[in-house]
Specification:
Oligomer: single chain
Number of strands: 8
Radius of gyration: 18 Å
Structural class: mainly beta
């Protein structure tokens, strides 16, 4: 939990110093966006992840985001139990525009959710840290991002692969 407070203090200090060095007002440099994911069927997946960014320079944005994810798996197979869970957490991200359409992205994400413990054969709620790096393509407000999870551990965490692909918007 100290890591979360440290990141928030660093961000708030950075925001206020950038706001003092720019001619624009702080609120004029805020950008809003996020991701929305939906899937229905034997797997129900709902992801609502709003984000707010601060345009520190013309090419560099940093910000915060929150995530709420609902997941339900209907097995329909004998011996494989159904699963229903929620994940929630937050993220700090930075985006650097290489060109008006191409950008680099770095993100530290902290998610709380149920992870299967093979020793106890139970799901246990715990915090999972994800360090994601990569880039993407922007067309207007729509962004497509491909990220690599540097902290990925097979079978332990939220993601089933070290690769994370997202589609979102930023206004």
């Amino acid at each position: 939990m100290r890591k979360v407070f440290f990141v928030l203090i660093v961000l708030l200090t950075g925001f206020s110093s950038f706001a003092q060095n720019q001619n624009d007002r702080f609120v004029d440099r805020l950008r809003f966006g996020g991701n929305l994911g939906l899937s229905f069927g034997s797997v129900t997946y709902i992801d609502v992840s709003p984000m707010v960014g601060y345009q520190a320079t013309d090419r560099w944005m940093l910000g915060l985001g929150a995530s709420y994810i609902y997941y339900k798996f209907n097995s329909n197979t004998v011996g494989i139990p159904d699963q229903e869970t929620t994940w929630w957490g937050g993220r700090h991200f930075q985006q650097f525009n290489i060109t008006p359409q191409l950008f680099a992205w770095g993100e530290f994400e902290l998610l709380n959710g149920e992870v299967y413990d093979p020793f106890d054969q139970l799901y246990k709620r715990q915090w999972i840290e994800n360090l994601l790096v990569g880039g993407g393509y922007r067309s207007g407000p729509v962004m497509v991002t491909a990220l690599y999870n540097v902290s990925y551990q097979s079978g332990n965490g939220f993601y089933n692969s070290p690769w994370v692909f997202r589609v979102g918007v930023f206004l």
